[in-house]
Every structure is written in structure tokens, then in C-alpha cells.
Amino acid sequence: AAGPNTISELFLPPPNEFVPKDLHVDRIDVKEPTKRPNLLRRTEASTLWHKKDDQFWLPKGYAGVFIHSPAANCSAKNALMMRFIECLITDALTEYSYDASLAGLDYSLSFGEDGILSLQTSGYTDKMLVLLQHLLDKTKNHVIRQDRFDLYKEEIAQAIENAKKREPHILAHDWMDHCLRDVGWNVFQLLEEIPHVTSQHVQEHLAEIFRRAHVSILLTGNFTEEDALKAQDLVESQLGTRPILPTEAISRTMLLPRGKEYLHNETLTNPKETNNAVEYYLQIPQDSEISQAKLLLLAHLVNEPTFSILRTREQLGYIVSSYSWVQISVMAMAFRIQSEKPTLYVENRIEAFLKDFKQTLTTMERTEFESQRQGLVNRLLEKLDNLDQESSRFVSKILDGTYDFTLREKNARRIEKLTLEDMVEFYNTYIDPESTSRAKLSMHIHSQSKPSTNFNFSVAASKIYLEDLKEAQVPVDEAQYTTLSKAEPSVDSVVGFWTKYLGTLATLTPERRQKLLDRIKELAELHPVKPVEGSSGVLKEGTIIVDDLQAFKKTLQMSRPTVSVIDLDEEARQATVSSRL
Hints:
By secondary structure, the protein is of the alpha+beta class. The protein is 46% helix and 16% strand.
């Protein structure tokens, strides 16, 4: 036992170099936590942001490195190769995952639609920069193995193929996002490039994205300014990137003409999918500080009625949502619905809802408006839960280029000053279907299945089913049953309700319970919903059908670039002066 080990396969692992030894937290007294990170140093190659933790007091932190290279996403092939890089390097980095997790450290490498490669770490700060150095080295100097490339080529091809078969409401948003981005590639364009990508191409692309890039760095938590400056030196020495021109880091949003309404149709590739989907998008200019506050309040006001009316009352589908969408220099109010009903019918119901909501908004009691307004203000001013949430908010404002780290607080203050008259004017200008100045684009995703008239449970079927329930001595509130039946809900929702309810009745045998459930679809087929005039939907007069999205995008103007609310040069100069004092 005291002799030398002669079995080469038997050995102890090397020491875990990521285990923290210093868990000291330098706690400082502050009246109120700082709302934003400071710009510590700006060079030609990188920009460094830092915020020392002043509210959670843990020996933990976050470090994010964001690499913006013009070459990353400039073509469908380049964007596809970034997916290979993301998968292959993530695979190579697994050699650190076990030791890092044991030491309380997490890391991730990801590539976003915005063309930015992100390397992020979080956990105990003591040895985080040691891990970051390994991650940067492995990322920059990775040598692609042919066997791993072949494996991931098959996986990536399958993943992109599967993306074509995602749920219709997701695909509707994907197509909308693709149409509105100045640079973006859809799944069909990516699939076309798969056969033309080799491991050598990916290796060359990896070198190219680090040849010229701008890097943004953020450190938060239990890091000192000295730690942050060391991290920036580490990143620049490891990556060795040359600077890019400011104009090469610009992204924009495609602008829809005022007073125009467009509609684009896509057919699902999955023949088994029976649902359709509509994404209804109303673009709004971000032409003043108060514009976004108005949009946020409108989205708050319209959210509950959208669900209760379009989903619960009208039974358009299980997936019904409304949301605000802030993009580059513009924003939007959007509605998304997945339904078995025809897309034009769904669009017509959205339009009808918006017409009715105009009256709802105009006649709203001031006490109700003020209560709703205050509810949104309270939500915006909620305290942060943890360091991860704080870091995530900082990252979003660094990557969108506005550096508006206190936007939530600003919007809360602006929303408090909004009046009901302000909202009515905003609604009439940009949302009202009768407005001549709104800009609209609808994305209609169609199932290959032929439309059916039997997707709802008719009133006639409901009356017969009530007699079946009585015969089986099932307790029923007849008044409520009759009221709900008038909405002619979907067959699936009827089956779902009675499956749950009948399951609670011990007096029913399993055989009797199943017979009652089978009876629902039987009655739906025997007594279908009578077609209603307009149930297939009517195309609104003046709507422009877009057949070719790529050609359509070429006709659109682009938004102005993102405007920073911070003078980066001045802040960097002040940081330099401060460091010398």
C-alpha cells in the first residue's frame, strides 16, 4: 500500500482550481442601491462596465463577455456556421463543467439572432476569472475535430428541420421577426446552406469573428474595480481582436409605412398540424420619451380583456395573448392567437375586439384607470429578487445599445403622469382599426388540413347531451350549462371539462363514464355547428397581400440606429480622470 502506483488507470483527479478560498464580502453602507453599472474603461477593442454589489452581500458575481463581429451574421451561411461554433465549443468546454459546478460556478456560450456571441459566467467570484481565462482560451483557439463536426452537422440539420414543425403561433412570431429585422435568416435559408458547410469553413469563420470585433464586458457582484480592469485586460489579451467601425455595429428595424395594412400567408410544413395562427402587429414610432410609457400602459390595460374576450368568451383557441414589443427605435402592440378557425376569421375577431375596446377605453371610469395605472407602476418599481436578475437587466440595455439602465424607473414616473385622455389619443392614432395613420402587418400561418365545421360543440348537441347527463344522474346546474352552451365551445374543451368533472363522481362506473365522454364527439358529428355568414373571415378592404417577404423588405425603409442615452466618450473620459486621482 505504501509502494508506488503501477496501475496507470488508477489515479486521483488533479486539484480543482475553481474552488473558492476567499469568501470575504466587502460590505459598504449605502442609503440606496445604485441603479446602473459604471463605465470603467473604453478602448478601441472593448468597453468595460462594472457594478459592485450593494444590496445582496454575497461572495458571488457575474461576468459577461459579448462579442459583436460584423462577419458573424452577415449571410445565411455565416449565421449557420455560428450555430456550429456554438455547439462545437460548448461541447469542448464540457471538460470544465464538472469542476466548475462543484465549485459553485456556471457558464454558458450562446449565439443570438442579434449576431452577438455571448460568454457568461456566474457564481463565486474568487476563482471566476480563472475559469473565464480557460473559457476564452478554449473558445478562441478551438481546433475543430472532423468526427465532432460530422455529429453536430447531423444534429443541427435535424434541429433546423424540426424548427419548421414548431407550434404555429411560434412560427407566426418567427416569420414576423424575420420580416422586421434588417439582417436575419429563416429556417429555409439556413437549411439550403447545410450541404455547403465544411469543418474547414467553420474553422476559418471562427478565426474571422475574432479578427475584427467589438467586445462589451460586464462584471457585477462581489468584484472590485481592480478585478474588473483585470478581466478586461484578460479578455483583450486572450481574444486579440482588432476594432471595427462604429457603423458596423448598427442594427435597425424595418419601418412599415403609415396608413398601410399588410398581410402575409405561410403554409405549415407539418401535415399533421390542424391549428392555424395569426400574429397581428401594429408598429408605433418611438418618437418621444413618453411613447414607450404609453405603450406599456396600453398593453397593461388591454391584456386581461384580450384573454377574457377572445379566448374565454369567443373560444378562438387555447393560445391567445397580447404584448408590447420594443424594437430598435420603434415599438409595437401585438396580438398572437393559435386557433383551428380560419385565419381571416381570427383577424376579423381581433379587429372587432379593438373596435369595441375603443369604446371601453373611452368610457372607462377614472378610478378604474387610476387603479390600473398604479398597478403597472408598482410592478415596474418592484425590488430586484437577486443578483442574476440585476445582471440580466444590465445586459439587455448594453446589448440594445441604449445603455438606459434606469428605464423602468423612468417609465414608472412617466406612466404616473399619463391621463385617460392621453391614452385615448394614443389608441385612436396607432391602434384603432379605423385610424388612417396606423401601420399594420399580419402574419397568417395556415394548416394543411381542410377547415372543419365540427371543431365546436353546437347548441343542438348540448341540449341532447344534457338529457344524457340527466339519465346518468349526473348533477348539473342547468342554468349555467345553458349559458355556457350558447358560446358553442370547442369539442376539445368540452371533453376536457367533462373528463375532469365525471372523474370526481364515485357513483359512475368507469364504463358509464367513458360512454358519456365518447358521446360528446358522436353528438358533435351528428349535430355540427351551423355555418355562420363570415365564419371563414373577410379580407379587409385596402389590405395589401405580401407574396414575397424578401422583395417586400427591400421596399421598406430602415429605422434610425439606436440612440445611447449616455455619452460614452464623456463617461469614459471621466472614468479615466477618476482612476488617476
